[in-house]
Fold this sequence. Notes:
Layout: E1 7-10, H1 13-18, E2 25-30, E3 33-38, E4 43-49, E5 51-56, E6 59-64, E7 67-72, E8 85-86, E9 94-97, E10 103-106, E11 112-118, E12 121-125, E13 128-135, E14 138-144, E15 150-156, H2 162-172, H3 176-181
Antiparallel strand pairs: 1-2, 2-3, 3-4, 5-6, 6-7, 8-9, 9-10, 10-11, 12-13, 13-14, 14-15
Amino acid sequence: xxxxxxxxxxxxxxxxxxxxxxxxxxxxxxxxxxxxxxxxxxxxxxxxxxxxxxxxxxxxxxxxxxxxxxxxxxxxxxxxxxxxxxxxxxxxxxxxxxxxxxxxxxxxxxxxxxxxxxxxxxxxxxxxxxxxxxxxxxxxxxxxxxxxxxxxxxxxxxxxxxxxxxxxxxxxxxxxxxxxxx
Length: 182
């Protein structure tokens, strides 16, 4: 029998947890295409993708013809939307781009919740998003909410952590005695 040569790459335990792939799931390649296989060598997704990235539990981003689509572990497209760049979901949102230049955020159904008109971004948690804009020729990050209201201005040179943002917001809040005067 003529079996194809398979190259199996185990996702490290850190990556498995970080990227929400189920435990004991491996990315494998055959003839320069990628698929997913279980620890018992049962094929979950055949090797038909140019690249595979974890999306969230039981879902992955699959790239064909340089376009990314969201799929479940039954290899069914979540919707028919294509993206040029994608990232793994964080707290229910993924930063994506249709054109590779402007970015927005989609939910787990692949629907835009924040339109793609930012230079880059990341969901920090608690419905706070770090988004990048060109400010006087430099990429600066600000913090917005789901309604795109600016929470913190574009003053960060890199994406801040949720803890950094929470500390800044706590420092900015008014003392209780000021609130009671209102």
